[in-house]
Amino acid sequence: GQPIIFKQKQPDLPDLLTYYFPFKKDSTISYILYEWKDKDAVARPINELKIYIAKYNQLLNQVTAKYGKSQQTGNLEDLSQIAEKYLTREDSWKNDTTDIDMYITLSNKHAVQGDVSVEPTHAMRLYVRAPAKNKPEENLSKEKIDQLDGKAKLFLADLISGRFDDLKKYINPDAAPHVKNDQLDNLKNAIKDDKWELNSTGIQLTTTGKSYTNLRYSKTGDINDPPLIVLSILFDENDKIVAVQPLERMATQK
């Protein structure tokens, strides 16, 4: 469902936006997102960006005090990374009662490569969810398959047309902020066009026990069995895309 959004002024930081995302079926809260994001994609002085780091460390201490040590990726020590590429850190707390993710990305990098433009990014996000209770559906209804197939086709049409901002509405909102235009451009080049036909459907389980609906596509006109090229698209429980992967086999493989 569409989120309810609250805005709160923050000293020396972008406004805090708090998103309450409800489940479609009963409007109870699915998860909460707290976001501080610079709306202007321009380079900022390091002293201004240190305020982001101080806020991140403050939040880190608060969550750690209640939920213990996090699983950490990246660090915020080398400030030179802000100019050269990205200074990032992510922390997560996950157990039977807790599912929290927090990350920060600071970058003053600006580059243009063909049709792809990389803009400066300064953002912090904190996600709070109830632990997922994923139970795979044994059978996918035709109505469900048709619904997801329609979303996949719209996603592919936007991808091939280069409408990268438009297609992000089909992507899982946790993943969408991490998806860069250069990644989408590489995916576009790998897929080449949107001439794909639905070949098979099913449920894919991950090593963590999480389940996703898997739609697999073959190129239009490919009569091989199995197809030479398969496009695998995974959907989460909210019908948002979490992964798109082209898979190719040699003609001699079975």
Protein architecture, described:
This protein is of the alpha+beta class and 254 residues long. The protein contains five helices and 13 strands. It has helices spanning 46-67, 81-84, 142-160, 164-167, 181-191, and strands at 4-8, 16-22, 29-37, 71-74, 87-94, 99-107, 111-113, 116-118, 121-129, 196-205, 211-219, 229-235, 241-248. The chain has a seven-stranded antiparallel sheet. Mean pLDDT is 85; it is low at 250-254.
| Topology order in helix (H) and strand (E) letters | EEEHEHEEEEEHHHEEEE
Range of strand content: 35-45%
The number of strands is 13
Cα Rg: 20 Å
Shape: globular
| Percent range of helical residues | 10-25%
Secondary-structure class: alpha+beta
Task: Please give the alpha-carbon distance between the first and last residues.
Answer: 42 Å
The low-confidence runs, each spanning 5 or more residues with pLDDT under 50, are 250-254
Kindly report the oligomeric state of this protein. single chain
Number of helices: 5
Largest sheet: 7 strands, antiparallel
- On the 0 to 100 scale, the average pLDDT is 85
| Strand ordering within the main sheet | 1-2-3-9-6-5-4
